[in-house]
Specification:
With about 1250 residues, the protein is an alpha+beta fold. It contains 34 helices and 44 strands. The longest helix has 26 residues. The two termini are about 40 Å apart. This is Aldehyde oxidase 5.
């Protein structure tokens, strides 16, 4: 599509895991959404493909889908927006009046990292006839299906004529056949037995009295649709198998993949993580196989699979069809799965179970249990099943089943895939769930079974609900504010419509420059080793390869000092982590560059690595400086307290997973060493500086252009500068433009993410929960180079008090030097880590005192009108206390806590917890020189205004706010103001867009420039008060030679900390908030769901979605997202298949956001408040609520003491911490559990 200049369809991951590349595929009817990155072009013969450009544009007419997602503020960075639009558009083509469940299913395969999903659904639910809380429907384009694109007539004629025989497409490396019919397929299969078979959609087979038969090439969506129809037609007893399959299909992949993937492909993949085989095997399904020699029918069971990825299908055979039988009256069937994320994720363990009873009794006649994820292939627990035949379905059977299962499914600690204890326990938990479901159904049939407590049956309830239905509350502007004044109003993101139509351009959307090359990085495969040699001769033999780059090709400096630490562009003599860049291949295309890079051979001499934080502590491997803050006399205070508690809290890292991967285009200008960079960076000035240093030229010859970013979150500050320098070196060496676009896996490997933290503490407190002393040592894993780790540690220390006045408080901060890719800035910048440790302390103190946690938080909270932080910065906590009180009130906290206690008393296998926390978050940079902003405002003779500033638009709406400010000062409509790009040639030496300070700094600078212009125009305006803006500018100002261009500058406050004295005004101001979350966990699987009330200072519109988007990112940080490394230091989670961010299914069904009314902030532009980073921390309320729920579950097993739980609280950690008889059967010691992955 890039060749056709259709750049609206985005490349986000290349594996169908993000939905950014969604298009609509049609073979007349029906239409289906599909992942363009997974569709070979040759497979589309006879199909129509519609991209986002094909349904509407700002130049012609928007489609209602595009209009409504934009008006609902559902597009922030905008990179995911075209994919969202196409998923919804496809749904409407098939169902013009969809239900909320239809929308939920349609968007399952689309990820968003910015919005938190609610505004997207809020815009789309208007197609269900449900009004939006965010915009009025007056004037909104109606949905008119008659205006949609028709199926191309030439393709219609092709379909009517029928197949034209076999097709063959010949490429340079691959030959593709499209057979004419089944007999032709069998001929090809016999001739090419080792060739993979790729299938597309065919028609569903036929329904018969015995069941349903599906052609093997039926898509999973077609199977789901047919089964839904069968369930509607049949009695519940006859459709139990179909219902179990539907429950599985709801969670299986995303809608786009289900539309393309086939039931035959799912089975023949022979991957135990694919969920269908277990339930199909348990249901006694059969397969029809066909070859030139004839057909044969085989049962789908464990004997069909030969191993991982292998079946006993003969080389010349193909799978023709699958038969799924109906259920019989005394037959009970269920399917189970547990994954990292509820939907759109491979299962960790899945199971299919069927029991048949002798008619009218609870005596087991036959039993089938199959597991996936418990070995390399499908596992049938034959001994267990045979041992239970003839037994009554009662507690005795349960005990015997668990004993047999524990022996039969036991996994050795070294089993592939890890999580061995968790997987074994899940297999027992699944059977217990099945047992309880069958008990309930037998009771309904009136069959006598042993009495069971009602609270044991609570696990049977299960729901699939569309989330994000509850309104947020918007802070309105003053009634006296002019209707023409846009400041403070929830304006649509100024680029939202272009983002919704695919017209908005990102760096990789820019057309190729003539002669453009592509660069691909060669990275280390060793964590710590000497480089003995590099052989790139084979790489340069690859067709299209141009040159190889290494340290010797750098024209300037390969090394640079970063706060007294040396950082290398290319590793020269020694590598310090897997993923460190040691070279790069330049080629004519990205595919050629990638193939060539794979042929570079590097010889190493391995050295001893240090990976984990605890190892670094043992080896005293730390970066300098080591930081310390102290208030009061901690040691003396420990002698005056009632109790002392010691403990630790580990918090894992997080991948940025911005939707647009890092990259740039470097264009040499061929004169005086000039070079233009079109780059995705949050800090253009730093990129300019690093590139100039690398090339050995002055910064004035390097110009960085930044139009917008497809997400940043702090990850596009440091690492992109090095990538830019490498691309610039390639452009310098070849004299041609060079494009660099990291693949998702390489982006995750090279750029790393949020720092893991370990906090060790000693706290002294009174019996009423008042904390008098706390001594905390923070350890962060900095990785192999310093990067921004010292700044991040400083922010953690500066936030270690949160909103609590602890009179004697001491904190040490040490950054561990390890042999992992360097961790870097991430939204919150160390704040969430520092805050979480102190909240963990408050949580443990409350538990130790036997008091509600909110009471302990309240008794320790700052309350004096003039308070001082532990670093002696004055502030007023009034708004923080207001947020706290209003949060408790609006969440009905007291009543909900009582309801949680009642729920826990009446439910054994589901437990709830509730948690509320306050927040005090510093805004701005503690390094005072960064607190500055600059802007350039030009007025043209036609009255139009061009604003340039040093900030970067990455979805936070900085451009929208800059235009609003200029509109207010100049008195012109927003439509007359334009922002072209961020450019170092227009605004030099700009600070990074980070620390929630970009809008404050840029806004003040724009205001300053506009005020200068208005002061110049003031005499003209006074002389001609009745003239219009254009007349003032054109007729008089220009003719009077009044300058219509002005620079604006904001010199922020001088912030700094004297670390020796433990004092200093570290921040410009503080943002306050509070959050309450309630969580329900499934004690048997670790699954959970949440409800949230959040109170924050802020403004409406884009800022509101910054709050929700930040919270959802925090939800991922504290409950889902987990970085995993191999024993040799290689990142295992290198894409959306392994690393899961929150999807639509993970969003709380109730998420109420309230913005604090009448909260003033005299320090910032028009009382704005930085709220981009703080809400991430509120995800910790989920973590502590989960911990409360786990504690309730542990009390059922007689465990009342403290227990360790590290963040994130994944399904594995939740399940393993809920100690019960099933965990004990797997010989698990819960008191020391920290998860299957060693903390890094």
């Amino acid at each position: 599509m890039s060749a056709a200049r259709l750049t609206g369809t985005k490349y986000g991951c290349g594996s169908g895991g993000c939905g950014a590349c969604t298009v609509m595929l049609s073979r007349y009817d029906p239409h289906c959404s599909a992942n363009a990155c997974l569709l070979p072009v040759v497979s589309l013969h006879g199909a129509a493909v519609v991209t986002v450009e094909g349904i509407g544009s700002t130049k012609t007419k928007l489609h209602p889908v595009q209009e409504r997602i934009a008006k609902a503020h559902g597009s922030q960075c905008g990179f995911c927006t075209p994919g969202m639009v196409m998923s919804m558009y496809t749904l409407l083509r098939n169902q013009p009046q969809p239900s909320l469940e239809d929308i939920r299913e349609a968007l399952t395969g689309n990820l968003c990292r910015c919005t938190g999903y609610r505004p997207i659904v809020d815009g789309f639910k208007t197609f269900c006839g449900i009004s939006s809380e965010l915009f009025h429907m007056n004037g909104v384009l109606p949905l008119d299906p008659s205006q949609d694109l028709i199926f191309p007539p030439e393709l219609m004629l092709m379909l009517q004529k029928g197949g034209g025989g076999r097709l063959c497409f010949q490429g340079n490396r691959v030959k593709w056949f499209s057979p004419a019919d089944l007999s032709d397929l069998l001929e090809l299969r016999a001739a090419h037995p080792n060739a993979p078979l790729v299938v597309g959609n065919t028609n569903v087979g036929e329904a018969a009295h015995s069941g349903v038969t599906f052609g093997s090439a039926c898509s999973l969506s077609e199977v789901k649709e047919e089964l839904q129809g069968a369930v509607g037609r049949l009695d519940p007893e006859e459709s139990r198998v179909f219902q179990a399959l539907l429950n599985t299909l709801r969670c299986l992949a995303g809608k786009q993949i289900r539309n393309m993937a086939t039931v035959g492909g799912n089975i023949l993949s022979a991957d135990p993580k694919y969920d269908l085989s277990c339930i199909l095997a348990a249901a006694d399904c059969t397969l029809q196989l066909v070859s030139k020699g004839g057909t044969r029918e085989v049962p789908l069971n464990e004997k069909f699979f030969a191993g991982f990825g292998r079946t006993h299908l003969r080389a010349d055979e193909v799978l023709l069809s699958l038969h799924i039988p109906r259920s019989q009256p005394w037959e009970f069937v269920s399917a189970f799965r547990q994954a990292q994320r509820r939907e759109f994720a491979f299962s960790i363990v899945n199971a299919g179970m069927k029991v048949v009873f002798k008619e009218g009794t609870d005596t087991v006649q036959s039993l089938s249990i199959f597991y996936g994820g418990m070995g390399p292939t499908l596992l049938r627990v034959k001994r267990t099943c045979e041992g239970l035949v003839g037994m009554s379905w009662n507690e005795g059977l349960l005990e015997e089943a668990c004993r047999l299962l524990a022996e039969e499914v036991a996994l050795p600690p070294t089993a592939h895939g890890g999580k061995t204890e968790f997987r074994s326990i899940l297999s027992l938990s699944f059977f217990f769930k099945f047992y309880m479901q069958v008990v309930q159904e037998l009771r309904e049939k009136g069959v006598g079974v042993a009495d069971l407590p009602l609270e044991y049956l609570s696990h049977c309830s299960r729901s699939y609900l569309l989330t994000i239905l509850h309104p947020s509350h918007i802070q309105m502007v003053s009634e006296i504010q002019s209707s023409k004044d846009p400041v403070g109003r929830p304006r649509v993101h100024i680029a939202a419509f272009q983002q919704a139509t695919g017209e908005a351009k990102y760096y990789d959307d820019l057309p190729a420059v003539s002669g453009e090359l592509f660069v691909f990085m060669v990275t280390s495969t060793r964590a710590h080793a000497k480089i003995i040699s590099m052989d790139f001769s084979e790489a340069l033999r690859v067709p299209g390869a141009v040159t190889f780059l290494s340290a010797r090709d750098v024209p300037g400096q390969n090394r640079r000092l970063w706060f007294n630490n040396t950082e290398e562009l290319f590793a020269e003599e020694e590598v310090c982590c897997v993923g460190q860049i040691i070279g790069a291949v330049v080629a004519e295309s990205r595919e050629q560059a990638k193939r060539a890079a794979e042929r570079v051979r590097v010889t190493y001499d391995d050295l001893s690595p240090v990976f984990f934080t605890i190892e670094a502590i043992q080896h005293q491997s730390f970066f300098n400086p080591k930081r310390k803050l102290e208030r009061g006399n901690v040691d003396e205070a420990f002698g005056k307290v009632d109790r002392i508690l010691e403990g630790e809290m580990y918090m894992g890292g997080q991948e940025h997973f911005y939707m647009e991967t890092q990259g740039l285009i470097a264009v040499p200008r061929g004169e005086d060493g000039e070079m233009d960079l079109y780059v995705a960076t949050q800090h253009a000035a730093f990129t300019q500086e690093v590139v100039g240093h690398t090339l050995g030229v002055d910064s004035n010859k390097i110009t960085c252009h930044v139009k917008r970013l497809g997400g940043g979150f702090g990850g596009k500050v440091m690492k992109i500068a090095s990538l830019s320098a490498i691309a610039a070196t390639a452009a310098y060496k070849t004299g041609r433009a060079v494009r660099c676009v990291l693949d998702r896996g390489d982006d995750m490997l090279i750029t790393s993410g949020r720092h893991p933290f370990l906090g060790k503490y000693k706290v002294g407190f009174m019996n009423d929960g008042t904390i008098l002393a706390a001594d905390i040592t923070y350890y962060s894993n900095g990785g192999s180079t310093l990067d921004e780790s010292s700044f991040i540690m400083e922010k953690a220390l500066l936030h270690m008090d949160n909103g609590y006045k602890i009179p004697n408080l001491r904190g040490h901060g040490l950054v561990c030097k390890t042999h992992l890719p360097s961790y870097t800035a991430f939204r919150g910048f160390g704040g969430p880590q520092g805050l979480t440790i102190i909240e963990s302390i408050l949580h443990e103190v409350a538990a130790e005192c036997g008091l509600p946690a909110e009471e302990v938080r309240a008794v320790n909270m700052y309350s004096e009108e003039e308070s001082y932080t532990h670093h002696r910065q004055p502030f007023c906590p009034r708004d923080m206390v207001r947020c706290w009180d209003e949060c408790l009130e609006k969440s009905d906290y007291s009543s909900r806590r009582l309801a949680v206690q009642h729920f826990n008393a009446t439910n054994r296998w589901r437990k709830r917890g509730i948690c509320a926390v306050p927040l005090k978050f510093g805004i701005g940079f503690s390094k005072g020189f960064y607190n500055q902003g600059a802007a350039l405002v030009n007025i043209y003779k036609d009255g139009s205004v061009l604003v340039s500033h040093g900030g970067t638009e990455m979805g936070q709406g900085i451009n929208t706010k800059a235009v609003q400010i200029a509109s207010r000062i100049l008195g012109v409509p927003m439509s007359s103001i334009h922002i072209k790009e961020t450019c170092t040639g227009n605004v030099p030496n700009a600070a990074p867009s980070a620390a929630s300070f970009g809008t404050d700094a840029v806004g003040m600078a724009v205001k300053d420039a506009c005020e200068k212009l208005m002061k110049r125009l003031e005499p003209v305006m006074k002389a001609y008060p009745k003239w219009t803006w254009s007349q003032w500018v054109i007729t008089e100002a220009y003719c009077q030679k009044i300058s219509l261009s002005a620079t604006g500058f904001f010199m922020g406050p001088h912030t700094s900390v004297d670390w020796e004295k433990s004092e200093g005004a570290a921040y410009y101001y503080f943002t306050f908030g509070a959050c309450c979350s309630e969580v329900e966990i499934d004690c048997l699987t670790g699954d959970h769901k949440v409800w949230v009330t959040l109170k924050a200072g802020g403004s409406a519109g884009v800022s509101r979605w910054q709050v929700e988007g930040g919270f959802v990112q925090g939800l991922g940080l504290y409950t889902i997202e987990e970085l995993q490394f191999s024993p040799d230091g290689a990142l295992r989670t290198r894409g959306p298949n392994q690393y899961k961010i929150p999807a639509l299914c993970d969003i709380p069904p109730q998420l109420n956001v309230h913005l604090l009314a009448d909260s003033q902030n005299p320090n910032a532009i028009y009382s704005s408040k930085g709220i981009g980073e703080p809400p991430v921390f509120f995800g910790c309320t989920l973590f502590f609520a989960i911990k409360e729920a786990i504690a309730a579950a542990r009390r059922e097993s007689g465990l009342n003491g403290r227990f360790a739980l590290s963040s994130p609280a994944t399904v594995e950690k939740i399940r393993m911490a809920c100690v019960d008889r099933f965990t004990e059967m797997v010989c698990f010691t819960s008191s020391s559990f920290q998860g299957s992955q060693q903390p890094v």
